[in-house]
Amino acid sequence: MKATEIYSSATHIWLVLGRDSNKPNNIIDTNQYLIKSANEAIILDPGGIELFSPMLASILKHVSLEQVTTLFASHQDPDIISSLGLWDKALPQATLHAPWLWEGFIRHFGMDNISYQPIKDEGGEIKIGKTTLRFVPAHYLHSSGNFNVYDPTAKILMSGDIGAALEKGEPPMFVEDFASHVKHMEYFHRRWMPSNRAKENWIARVKELEIDIMAPQHGRIFKGETVQEFLEWFSRLDVGCACK
Asked: Each residue of 105-144: pLDDT tens digit?
């Protein structure tokens, strides 16, 4: 599993962990994120159970387990959080922040030690080290209870399935040409984003944020002008359609 630094300052880093060449061929590729601020760290969307070992090995190269105090799950899907039962043993003192709506479902993955902190529909904040992260509502995109994470220090929005692309092989980490990247996103967004109204609400909400990087849970990361290109493209896209 590759660990790529996408933001760094004296006390604050973002790592994306993914592009795992050893994952099974029939498992979709996912991006997991580690934020470390001062001496505290959080893992965003820790991934499926099959990724636990490479995730743990990668994380330990950058932080100690004692520094990982917090987990975040944007929603309930297994590629997001089915590794929970193993993290529950590795991080027994940690807290999981996840939508209140999915607590009864997420607990099926195993949680005897980690405490569950439900996120209200309107979102909220959490302090990690020297930075305060915001939980940004992204309901129905694609899950009915769903959140993004915004870091105002790094100006990064972890956007979950919004902006996701499914590509074969090991594509580049960043979107280099937006127009040519659309073909990897279009069907996914038409099919998995069921509500134009929810889409418009989300776009209005994130346009109020200062975003240098938009980091989805699948595929390439948007940086600089490609963030705005995505928002403009997404605003025009008619979603909630099973047609190819």
From this structure: 999 999 999 999 999 999 999 999 999 999 999 999 999 9
Of 47, 102, 6, the C-alpha closest to 218 is 47
Please count the CA atoms within 13 angstroms of the CA of 218 that sit on its side-chain side. Answer: 19
In this predicted model, which residue has the larger pLDDT, 109 or 18?
109
Q: Among 69, 23, 89, 136, which residue's Cα sits nearest to residue 31?
A: 23
In 10 A of CB 186, how many CB atoms?
14
CATH, residue 74: 3.60.15.10
Q: Is residue 228 one of the residues assigned to a domain?
A: no
d(CA 171, CA 16): 14
pLDDT digits (tens, 9 = 90+) for 203-230: 999 999 999 999 999 999 999 999 999 9
Residue 154's closest CA among 68, 69, 214? 214
Domain membership of residue 146 as a residue range: 2-163+214-219
* Contact (CB, 8 A) for 217 and 161: yes
- How many domains, in total, are found in the chain? 1
The residue written with tokens 């134009």 in the block is 196
* Pick from 65, 112, 123, 59: nearest CA to 84: 112
| Buried/exposed 170-180: b ≥16 CB within 10 Å, e otherwise | ebebebeebee
Query: 237 lies in a domain?
Result: no
What is the SS3 assignment for 130?
coil
The residues with which 116 forms a beta bridge, in sequence order, are: 96
